[in-house]
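Weekly modeling sync, notes
Attendees: S.R. (lead), two postdocs, one rotation student

Agenda item 3: backlog of single-chain predictions. S.R. asked that every request posted to the team notebook include the full sequence so nobody has to chase files. The rotation student volunteered to paste the first one in as an example of the format we agreed on. Action items at the bottom.

Example entry:
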Amino acid sequence: MRTQFTLTALIAALALTGCANMPEMSSTQRGTATGAGVGALAGAAIGAATGGGGGKRAATGAVIGGLAGAAAGNIWSNRMENQKRAMEQATQGTGVQVSQTADNRLKLDIPSDISFTTGRSDIAPNFRPVLDRFASSLNENRGTSVTIMGHTDSTGSDAINIPLSRERAARTRDYLVARGIAANRFIVDGRGSHEPLVSNDSAANRARNRRVEIFVAEQGS
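Predicted structure, as returned to the notebook:
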């Protein structure tokens, strides 16, 4: 029984770590494959634990779990991918990077040249249209929560940079709340200069590190 369960789990793991990471797959397909792999592993474990059928029960559990996981992964990915596409269209040509994280969150990386001027937390004019479209996207996807993280370059001390990074995140939240997004959907924080994208050894690199990152996830996920 243990050998058959191990083989079933191995097949499920290959589906999870192999197919789900193939670059030619769309986000929806990767979500389906990942969900199938997780579901199959869980189903196989439950089937083996219940006994009375040995490897056959584990295999059956893997099939059922895989089907359920595939459906769940596809539903999640469709919702988030629709929002991702909307934000890609809304931010095209602005320098904002829109991506899907490894833990299936939508990420917007807002560079400093459109978001905030050096040493300030006021929302720049070029940032407002991006946030306006983002607010519309959040209103269309009310089951999501938002984490906003502010960052600075290494110029100055933590006593300046950490409050500044938090204030930038808070100003971004306040702008979105003013456009009808519930305040309880947000978490805001700042990392100061402690999580740079690149080294702070040039003006161009320091500009890259001065940024706001916005993460969107389904509530409860």
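Discussion: group reviewed the output briefly. The first helix runs from residue 2 to 17.
Action items: rotation student to repeat for the remaining queue; S.R. to check formatting next week.
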